[in-house]
Amino acid sequence: MLRRTTKQVWLTAAVVFSLAGPVAAQDTWRMQPVAIRSRWAKEVTPQNALTAYPRPQMERRDWQNLNGLWDYAITGDEKKLPAKYDGQILVPYPLESALSGVKKALRPDQYLWYRKVVNVPETGGNRLLLHFGAVDWQCVVFVNGKEAGGHTGGYTNFTIDITDAVKPGDNTIQVKVYDPSDRGAGPHGKQVLNPADIYYTPSSGIWQTVWLEKVPQDYISGLYFTPDIDKGVLNITVKAPAGYTVEVSALKDRAVAGTVKGAAGAALKLPVTQPVLWSPANPFLYDLQVRLMKGSKQADEVKSYFGMRKITVEKDDKGVERIFLNNKPYFNLGTLDQGFWPEGIYTAPTDEALAFDIKAIKAMGFNTIRKHIKVEPARWYYWADKLGMLVWQDMVNPNQRLPEGSKPLFEQQCKETLAQLHNSPCITTWVLFNEKWGRFDQQRLTEWIKKTDPSRLVNGHSGEILYVNEKLRSPSPNAYVSADMTDVHSYPDPMNAMKLPGKARVLGEFGGIGVFIPDHQWNTSSAWGYIMEKPAALKSKYAIMNQHLQLLQREGLSGSIYTQPFDVEGEQNGLITYDREVVKIPFAALRKIHAPLNSDIGTIPEVTAADADLTDPSETYSVLLQQYVDGDRKPDFLRKLAMMASQTGDKTGAARISGDYFAMLKPPYAAEDLNYVMTVTRNTKDTGFSIIRDNIAAIDTALGPRQAEVKMMSLIFQDLIAPYVADPNASPDWNSIYTTVKPYGAPGEEIFLRAKTIHLLNKQDKAGYKPVAREYLEKYGQYVKAEEKKKLEAFMN
Known about the structure:
27% of the residues lie in helices and 25% in strands. By secondary structure, the chain is α/β, with parallel strands linked by helices. Helix 6 links the parallel strand 35 and strand 36 (610-611).
């Protein structure tokens, strides 16, 4: 998705952290407060945290789920195991999430530690494997105080053999996590320490299921299979020790549909006679049974599943290159799914919730999901396989600045992603880069993915060419090199991608129509979309866009991806609200709109969401405002009304009403009141500004480090400095400005020094710049990003 540009972008460099949440230690778990939450959040307890078997593609019976309460600590020392822990955290919900029970920010100079005592019975000569679905970003695992292994990369699974480290009875497992998010070199996706617009709250630490598995001394460690529908076989390799044979059987409705025997590690061909082809309309899955044998004795067994399907780019009967599914043209009608949750961030509250997203997207009439810059838990892909949904799988982009070490970390994450997800039939397309976010070596990497997995399409660069409001934002002279498709991003209205020989043409992103639904917003001060519409106008606007898709399809378009199915934090351009409670266009109406491009969706999943109230929010606000005029001053009413005033653009009303509400507040303020004050305060004259100024420590404790200071600096700059530096060539009276901001203490001084430094840098006034830049960096350099600090220091030399 496109990064939105704003004025005074440099101001954000003053922000170090902006993750909301209480910081008090928890001795017993409870979900922390959150602006909105999904219906499944209330079902979560320490006893039932994601209990389903986490790896459906290679299932065994003998396993133990380690999700639940773990001890946690946050320290500044990476070398010493913590002497004491801060409280308990509910695994596998990330540290910053409400469901973790902690909801704290992890700074780049901190380490997150986990500890759990696990009872291990006598292994009986078997091996004991410790599995992690994903830990963001870098971790080291200790068993009984000794290092047992680790992993780098926040999106892929890893396994540690802990057989020799454990003893019968109680054993202590500890995990150390380092996660600098967007301040580090590793892939971080949409996670940033300063969430805004199209970037969201980080998910540090364990965010997928942790489990133990007992296996024989010699065991099956992996499966790798690829269907070939033209030859009626499943090409399969079973990873296991040499000297063993394997027996592989395909089961159709519990009856054997094909069997093959051969050596472990060998490339085998499992015959599948008259295969039932997998598609979104008929997502038929074969069961797969794999046995490891030594002579006539079985050493190990796993169960899996597969789908027989084929994806290619071919010419249709008119000679137009199109995406083909199972040897027939198939329009990929898709939507851009971020995979975020209000209460769990990266982690869905329950398995039912995880499945709901795919069910809802299918019930809307889509047949494709572009999984955007995130790798989901294995069970998400299982549900996509089972329900019938094509998936374009994004690689998680490297840090866009490409700091030292980022390239090999990105390539390693890509390698692990390709291997981990290979067996899922739902995945038909790999997406390498997005809108030049950290792009490098595009041709080499595109060709590497194609060679690694020739069974799928490769979209080498989604949105390499980008249009916004019909203006070209991102030209590229050698676009889509070595890829299977050309891909344009066009906001808001759809357009066709360029025509190149041998490539399908797709619209990788479009739309982004923003519609906010009162009482269903994560951030009530933001209702961002590429364009904004009233609820009543969304259906017709969306229908017109899809009619244009029909025209483009006739002109050669093979697929489209609408932004987006669900609101996410500050983005309110989803077809369903972030809490999954309100669908903005009824499901049946969406299916009717989509039918010309996706007429056969198969079984329609049963999903529940309320239809949006099509009343203009301004009309609702006007009715309530009259109650205020008539004298209603109840605190809860004032709070809601002030938020609605902000949402509908009544700045005068928002200031007046919030002022009345603030007058009723008495210190000490609750965390939710401080969060509200931070949300609705718009300028230095608001009553809320005084509350922020007088409660800096309390706000930083409740909402995260430097939240209050950064809010103050932003408003001071906006009101007291920006008017004098709007012209980059201006020569303002800095002494007069300093006198104005001095009463605001350190935040006033910091933003004054920063504003003056940047202004003189832009003017290239080196003589005036040096002393003020030196003072700024000496006093506040710790809050400046490393790459910006280098630029500031370079101009002093």
